[in-house]
Amino acid sequence: MSTLMKGNFTPAQAVESAPQQADSLEQRFEKEALKKLGGSIAFVAKKKVLWGDEVDNQDATE
Amino acid sequence: MAKILFINPVVREEDDPRHVPYGIALLAAIAMREGHLVQVYDENAWRKGPQVLHSVFNADRWDVIAIGGITTAYGSIKNIVRQARRECPQALIVLGGGVLTSLPREMMGFLPEVDVGVVGEGFITFPEILAMLDAGGRDWASIDGTISRTADGGLFISGQRALLEDLDTLPYPAWDLFPLEEVYFPNSQVLFSEEGMLAKRRLDINMSYGCSLVCKYCYHLGIAGDMRYETDANEDIQVAFDQPKNYTRSIRYHSPEYVVGLVKYAREKYNIDFVVFLDENLMTMDQYSKRTWMSEICRLWVEAGLQPTCLRDGIEHDEQCTGVHWSGTSHATLCNPEILKTMRNAGCSHLVYGYESFARHVMKTIGKGATPQTNLRSFFWTLEAGIRPIPNQIIGFPNEDFAAIYDNMEAWKKLGIVVKPFFATPYPGSEWFTVYRNRILEQYDGDLESYLLDLGDATRITAVISHNFNAVELLGLRELMLNFDYKRIRAYEQYWRNNHGIKDGAPSTLYREPVQEVAVTKITQQKVATG
């Protein structure tokens, strides 16, 4: 029986935990790095990167 | 033959010990090659304190106690040399490394227990000290690269020691003398990439020394050609480093054959699966070699069978992967897509970029030779190559202002950067330290030693060199930046402007220094990689 809810009576419907998908290696890494954030630990959350920025080459040689 | 005790002092006490001290490992190997008797006690790895140190000091009759480290190891060094002097009155205590080199006269004053200091690179100087000791001499002043005590209680800096020309003459580091299985391999993980996270048996290697750039916050330990001996008005020699518009550099790197040979040796002997290249800036070397050095290392890496199987087979990395992954340092302006792809193919998992700031007006003042645009360009090139860029940031630059804060937050949001910036810190030996020395001392009641004891890895605030913000403001602003709290930052900007009498629309800065161009650096090369 699920123990997600606790009380002094039995609800009409049981609450079961949904099966969770295992984290990908990328997700695992980003979670671990976030826990240790600071100092030299910084990272790129790959799913949040906005791709497609044009880089002005003239500025780049400044 | 001298009986030598090397001690590695504690550094970054807040973290687990993760790095075999490369310099001590090399000096121990050199000493053994010369036939001396060597023991290493790695206090940073063991962290057992004075009781065990007592046993170490009394384990034999030491001729030499050698200790060294970076500036932030000063507190530990101070305690260790005090105890060493008390317990081993007969031993010659030698101090070297960045901690001594940046402030040789001051260090010898703070640490009266030290007999001889090695200024700059110790590869030649240290064995010469040992040879003199063996011969019964004590004339340290006749050995270049030393600072020693005179009969009248003064200090004498001998001639400047030339840097070792051919780095390939160095023996392999004496890794055997450090607690690899007990301490370092269990702490192999480096949380910079997936491959680094799964690393089980990591070692670190330095394949080059120096950097052609003139970042004002960098200290190169006196081994990058950055150190000059100057004579002051009293005819005393003073050791000087980067100063505004006065920079010197030497570029030195191991041959690709040495590098790959060393990694292959480490793989065969210790079964390593990851190497962190500690080099200041791999791309400086690659550019200096006309783009031959890094690609040749990568070619030999694959040829030697070191390429990780996940990359060879084009599959996702996991615990079953064999081979050696690696990481290093890059530079926003000096990298290019071709070399990044080549590095990835050979096993590079992440590259540390000191992006520092995404504000153009800040980047113009720091001597890095990079811009927000080159930061962006290299960021995407690196990701496209399959390498994780580590986007380090700094807050509290001399001309840091609200505009810079907003520029950084915008860039973090757009690029998915998750970062808690370092605080701009003027380490001894850096140009900032030279320029802001009086201002730093004011913050420590004139007590330089207090400042040295306060220094850490720049995650904590120490001396502030921002012209616009004090320590409290920088701490608060950093926290608000992390939460992308534009509302509170804007509200504080209004308060700040009122306090400083700066109208809306005008630049939010009190910084009045002219923006300096990146100076031309005088560079010499002491070894050309032949590939």
Describe the protein in words.
Chain A is mainly α. In chain A, 24% of the residues lie in helices and 3% in strands. Chain A has 2 helices and 1 strand. The longest helix of chain A is centred in the middle third of the chain and has 11 residues, at 25-35. The mean pLDDT of chain A is 83. Chain B is of the alpha/beta class and 531 residues long. Chain B has helices spanning 22-33, 43-46, 50-57, 74-87, 98-101, 104-110, 125-134, 180-184, 194-197, 256-270, 282-288, 293-303, 309-313, 337-346, 360-363, 372-385, 402-415, 431-442, 448-454, 471-482, 486-500; strands spanning 3-8, 37-42, 64-68, 92-96, 116-118, 146-149, 155-157, 202-205, 208-209, 228-231, 237-240, 248-253, 274-277, 325-329, 348-356, 388-395, 417-418, 422-423, 522-525. Mean pLDDT of chain B is 95; it is low at 514-520 and 527-531. The A-B interface holds A 25-26, 28-30, 32-34, 36-51, 53, 55-56, 59-60, 62 and B 191-194, 197, 316-318, 333, 352, 364, 371-374, 376-377, 379-380, 383, 388-393, 414-420, 422, 457-459.
Task: Please provide the count of β strands of chain B.
Answer: 19
- Assign an overall shape of chain B: globular
Helix content bin of chain B: 25-40%
Would you identify the regions of chain A where 5 or more consecutive residues have pLDDT less than 50? none
CATH architecture of the largest domain in chain B: Alpha-Beta Horseshoe
Q: How much is the radius of gyration of chain B in Å?
A: 24 Å
- The overall average pLDDT of chain B, rounded, is 95
CATH class of the largest domain in chain B: Alpha Beta
- Note poorly predicted spans of chain B: 514-520, 527-531
Biggest protein-protein interface?
A-B, 30 and 37 residues
The computed structural class of chain A is mainly alpha
CATH topology of the largest domain in chain B: pyruvate-formate lyase- activating enzyme
Count of helical stretches of chain B: 21
